[in-house]
Design goal:
Largest sheet: 5 strands, mixed
CATH class: Alpha Beta
Helix content: 25-40%
CATH superfamily: Ribonuclease H-like superfamily/Ribonuclease H
Strand order of the largest sheet: 3-2-1-4-5
Order of helices and strands: HEEEHEHEHH
Length: 185
């Protein structure tokens, strides 16, 4: 089912939410870059052209995250890539948090792998436990989990300096992963 401007589609969504048979979850994926994002800084007036050193890096971590709209519970999974297989793994993880006798209504965007053929057998097998509800294209403002990403970026990557690391990617990502784990818990 897709949200559209048609009153019928919106009416069905509202009916599902009001039926109290569903737990409403919102899911999205996000990349957290290990580079400094300067939002604010204090600089003495006498310094006209400040130089802020920053290590160039392309290190990042990728996170699937789902938030329960009813109670704020957050479930996340750190990955190296986003594709149908990793999304399916996240769905399997998410379904473990389902309240008995309630079906998960999962609000998601239209990423290509959310529609993958690989998911169809699993979704059919679990249709009594989970249902996908696709947002309109290019509408992140309708996805509540986007607020989680915004707060996490603000508190864990903005105005931070990450030390250089010229060896193992896992070691260089460790400070960022620790910060995100602290934020999520």
């Amino acid at each position: 089912m897709r949200i559209s401007t048609e009153p019928i589609a919106l009416k069905k969504l509202i009916q599902k939410i009001q039926s109290h048979r569903y737990e409403i979850w919102s899911t999205d994926e996000c990349h957290f870059q290990q580079n400094g994002t300067r939002c604010r800084m204090w600089i003495p007036k006498e310094i006209k052209n400040p130089v802020v050193k920053q290590e160039p890096t392309r290190h990042k971590i990728s996170v699937f995250g789902s938030v329960n709209i009813n109670n704020g519970q957050f479930v996340y999974d750190i990955n190296t890539i986003f594709n149908a297989e990793t999304f399916l793994d996240h769905l399997k993880q998410l379904i473990q948090y389902r309240t008995k006798r309630k079906k998960i209504l999962l609000i998601i965007d239209n990423a290509k792998y959310h529609h993958a053929i690989l998911l169809k057998p699993w979704l059919e097998q679990n249709k009594r436990k989970i249902e996908l509800f696709f947002l309109p294209p290019y509408s992140p403002e309708l996805n509540p989990v986007e607020l989680v990403w915004k707060i996490t970026r603000y508190s864990k990557t903005h105005n931070r300096f990450f030390l250089p690391c010229n060896h193992c990617t896992n070691v260089s990502q460790k400070p960022l992963i620790i910060g995100i784990n602290q934020m999520m818990n």
